[in-house]
Amino acid sequence: MLSSYCVARSRVVTVAPSRPTARLEQFSRHLEPKPFLELNTPFSTERSARFVDEQGNVIRPKKQPAPQKIVEETKPQKVASDLKPHKIFEDIKNLSETPERPRKMSSQPEHPALLIPGPIEFDDAVLQAMGHFSESHVGQPFVNVFGDVLANLRKLFQTTDPASQPFVISGSGTLGWDQVAANLSEPGDEVLVLHTGYFADSFADCFETYGVKATQLKAPIGERPSLEEVEAALKEKKYKLLTVTHVDTSTGVLSEIQALSELVHRVSPDTLVVVDGVCSVGSEEIRFDDWKLDVVLTASQKGIGCPAGLSILMVSGRAIETFKARKTRPTSYFGSWKNWLPIMQNYEAKKPSYFATPSPQLVRALDTSLKQILSKPVEEYFAAHKAASQKVKKAVADLGLKQLASKPENQANGMTAIYLPEGIAPPQVLPSLVKKGVIFAGGLHKEIATKYIRFGHMGVSVTDPKRPDITKAIESLKESLGEVGYKN
Ligand SMILES: *Cc1c(COP(=O)(O)O)cnc(C)c1O
């Protein structure tokens, strides 16, 4: 727990005299018990960080160049084969060996590299797809694109079972929780929620909203519940669903999905295995069929590298059967699979169909990002994330800093949650990082929010060798800590 936070005791750590700051009041919101019906929006430090420097002075944003006109003509969008996927898979390690890379990372206006655990940096072609002229959501060209998206999601999730069902619905990752709670559980059902950080509390809260009883199995901060603990919990009670956060974005803890699913199938074979993959799909390997998963839910803006606004799910045939066998009607209207299932099946068969209007522009952006990811074997995409992650984790250790996830097997590949040296708080570091062109996120886990920062390394920032993002972020972190008096 907190022991993993302490900076090695033998090391002399010098810090700038700590200054009481009004900003800390804002963090303390994390620490206060949540009143009923409080807005469920954790105040995160990145917001203040962007506008206030380490002395508490307001940073005036530099005048931005006039926004670029993205689409000037109404030519049909390029198809995937025309898009030149960036040379994704050049060895990421080369990045560190190449001292100076061109500052300009893309044709986008200059901006600090957004290295938070989602939204992430987007590729030019993905953003350009968003500028597609308006088209009918039941017109054949769009329906064809939607069909391709659903087929490509099967590839990304590594499922060839025709009974698996992809869903793409307007909304954010959170809508995936609502879909699971409203379609797969019924009021009064029991579910087991494995807790590795903030997001499990919210998923449990979502179940409770639908009258479903959520039991949380919690691990100390930076750890995950052991398989033995999960086994004991499953033997104690029959659970309709078990949920696990693949990567908890508040702690950077990675869960062991394959072993966990094997365990559930052995000990409690009727329990459906639901994976919150919002911060893992794209950056972590997921083998939907081989691992016998029932739901993997995600969003567009993290490892998939598409602007926010889409809730994306892969659902097993077994889970669809569970849905069809409900005794009560789904407890959501917009999120009901009764409404969406035929629509998704029609789209995949490239047949126009309507329940509620999808966003053609977002779906086109998703189509572009999926085609880029799948332009090579997915294993290579995961390997690129692993290599970048190893590089970040080594740099963090070389700086004498600790991660929340102290054990290598618990560490995510798409992000790193880093304890700051004792006496240094996020508001002293994040603003100076912004000045250097790097945006990190502050802490999110309510018990320790003021003690750590989060570094997201997903998507084009790690796969596009033209982008200096990761190397620059590591150097900037070193410099920023030096500026506030940290000596390693
Ligand atoms: C970001 C995130 C969510 C919530 O997704 P939104 O798109 O913000 O609604 C849920 N779970 C995890 C693990 C996440 O990282």
Automatic annotation (TrEMBL):
Give any Gene Ontology cellular component. Answer: peroxisome
Name the EC number(s): 2.6.1.44
Q: What does the record give under GO molecular function?
A: alanine-glyoxylate transaminase activity; L-serine-pyruvate transaminase activity
GO BP: any one term: glycine biosynthetic process, by transamination of glyoxylate
Q: Which domain of life is it from?
A: Eukaryota
- Record carries keyword Transferase: yes
Instruction: List each copy of the Aminotransferase class V domain by range.
Output: 129-445
Spell out the family assignment given in the record's similarity comment.
Belongs to the class-V pyridoxal-phosphate-dependent aminotransferase family.
Q: Name its co-factor(s).
A: pyridoxal 5'-phosphate
Query: What's one Pfam family here?
Result: Aminotran_5
Q: What name goes with this protein?
A: alanine--glyoxylate transaminase
Q: Which UniProt keywords apply?
A: Aminotransferase, Pyridoxal phosphate, Transferase
